[in-house]
């Protein structure tokens, strides 16, 4: 337990860390990679170049500090991070160096304002939070290893099929090279791929949502090829998978992880996705029609147009085969052929007025996934409609953040 004085100091200085979050994050990663270069492979270097990872780290530290006297308030964040840590293979012995580096970054950025009292308080707070993470991750490691077919670390899978789903999305059907049992997973979870790319000094690890219902034969991920755009470089791992990995090739994979999963409640469910955010919602849809045929399901997907819209025909077939499934598509930049053939239900983006026109009411469970602007827009629309937080569930592909952040 932290003493009252420590809690007071941490809570009062948390806003200062938030104010300087980007600078602290940048300094932290600069120091960390210099001290422990082997950790380089755990972080998405595109997010590093864009400054996303740096800001997310320090913002997470701020949230922990601001809620240090009631960490239950950030339980969902903690669960999400521990799932990712388990998937990446984070070890207890890595926490001390991370803590030392973080405190040094705070000192370097804040200078004389980072008094001994402040640093001592944050050191105690970090250790208390680290212990929570270590304990939860230990439980996850044990649960993962003990389930039928479970494993810790990486396991070799071969690409059984590589299927083009759209101009930018390709599915990879993965089977274990050892031929042994595949552990089950929950719809909405993801796999972590370790890519060993020729010419790269370090391995690169990425999370990709499983895009099919759990089964005993294979895992499927559906990956968007991230091309260069504005200030963002091409996605190193997505392009590697699209351009260099072929059927028969092997990949090192960590066991399924993630907390974006369907609740056991039986009320109607709405699956909303934008772009490649369709991958976890597709897994959910396929799972629901197999296991919960009486539950009312509304599937809504937003894409630029039919050329980049993956798995459209499959969703249409399910909506035709199952009377409890209704599907809608929204295209922000439809092609002329899309217009001629009326391939979409709405031109433009998904908004509250349109949602209210196609949904009977807001008494439903909402699950949504896609780019951060999409998530923020959907979350805000659902809030305005009065959907409580416990019925607004989302998966964020970016590093840790919150949709409530301005």
Keywords:
alpha/beta, Elongation Factor Tu (Ef-tu), domain 3, Rossmann fold, six-stranded antiparallel sheet, 12 strands
Q: How many domains comprise the coordinates?
A: 3
**Structural class determined from secondary elements:** alpha/beta
Can you count the helices? 13
Major sheet: 6 strands, antiparallel
Distance between the termini: 32 Å
Rg to the nearest angstrom?
A: 22 Å
Tell me what the CATH architecture of the largest domain is. Answer: Orthogonal Bundle
Concise overview:
With 406 residues, the protein is of the alpha/beta class. It folds into 3 domains: 4-146, Globins (Globin-like), CATH 1.10.490; 155-257, Translation factors (Elongation Factor Tu (Ef-tu), domain 3); 269-396, Nucleotide-binding domain of ferredoxin-NADP reductase (FNR) module (Rossmann fold).
Fold blueprint:
Elements lengths: L3 H16 L1 H15 L9 H6 L1 H15 L8 H14 L6 H16 L5 H31 L8 E10 L4 E8 L13 E6 L8 E6 L9 E6 L11 H8 L6 E8 L11 E6 L3 H14 L5 E7 L8 H10 L3 E7 L4 H6 L4 E2 L4 H7 L6 E6 L1 H13 L7 E5 L10
Parallel strand pairs: 7-8, 7-11, 8-9, 9-10, 11-12
Antiparallel strand pairs: 1-2, 1-6, 2-5, 3-4, 3-6
GO molecular function: nitric oxide dioxygenase NAD(P)H activity
Pfam family, one: Globin
InterPro entries: Cbr1-like_FAD-bd_dom, FAD-bd_FR_type, Flavoprot_Pyr_Nucl_cyt_Rdtase, FNR_nucleotide-bd, Globin, Globin-like_sf, Globin/Proto, Hmp
């Amino acid at each position: 337990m932290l003493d009252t004085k420590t809690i007071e100091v941490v809570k009062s200085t948390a806003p200062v860390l938030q104010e300087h979050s980007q600078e602290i994050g940048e300094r932290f990663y600069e120091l960390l990679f210099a001290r422990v270069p082997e950790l380089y492979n755990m972080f998405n270097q595109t997010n590093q170049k864009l400054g996303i990872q740096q800001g997310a780290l320090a913002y997470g530290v701020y949230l922990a500090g601001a809620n240090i006297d009631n960490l239950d308030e950030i339980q969902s964040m903690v669960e999400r991070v521990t799932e990712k840590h388990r998937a990446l293979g984070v070890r207890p012995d890595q926490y001390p160096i991370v803590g030392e580096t973080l405190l040094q970054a705070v000192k370097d950025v804040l200078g004389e304002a980072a008094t001994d009292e402040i640093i001592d308080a944050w050191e105690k707070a970090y250790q208390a939070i680290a212990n929570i993470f270590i304990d939860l991750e230990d439980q996850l490691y044990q649960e993962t290893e003990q389930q039928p077919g479970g494993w810790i670390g990486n396991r070799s899978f071969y690409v059984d099929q590589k299927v083009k789903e759209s101009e930018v999305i390709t599915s990879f059907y993965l089977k274990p090279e050892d031929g042994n049992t595949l552990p089950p997973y929950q719809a909405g979870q993801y796999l972590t791929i370790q890519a060993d790319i020729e010419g790269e000094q370090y391995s690169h690890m990425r999370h990709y949502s499983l895009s099919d219902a759990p089964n005993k034969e294979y895992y499927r991920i559906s990956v968007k090829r991230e091309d260069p755009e504005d200030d963002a470089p091409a996605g190193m791992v997505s392009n590697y998978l699209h351009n260099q990995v072929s059927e028969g090739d092997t990949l090192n994979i960590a066991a399924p992880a993630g907390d974006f999963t369907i609740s056991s409640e039986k009320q109607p469910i709405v699956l909303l996705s934008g772009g490649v955010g369709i991958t976890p919602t597709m897994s959910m849809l396929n799972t629901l029609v197999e296991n919960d045929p009486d539950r009312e399901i509304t599937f809504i997907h937003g894409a630029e147009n039919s050329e980049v819209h993956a798995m459209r025909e499959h969703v249409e077939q399910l909506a035709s085969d199952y009377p409890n499934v209704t599907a809608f598509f929204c295209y922000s930049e439809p092609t002329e052929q899309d217009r001629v053939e009326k391939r979409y239900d709405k031109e433009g983006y998904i908004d509250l007025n349109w949602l209210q026109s196609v949904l009977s009411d807001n008494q439903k469970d909402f699950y949504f996934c896609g780019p951060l602007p999409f998530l923020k827009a959907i979350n805000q629309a659902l809030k305005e409609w009065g959907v409580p937080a416990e019925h607004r569930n989302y998966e964020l592909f970016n590093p840790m953040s919150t949709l409530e952040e301005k």
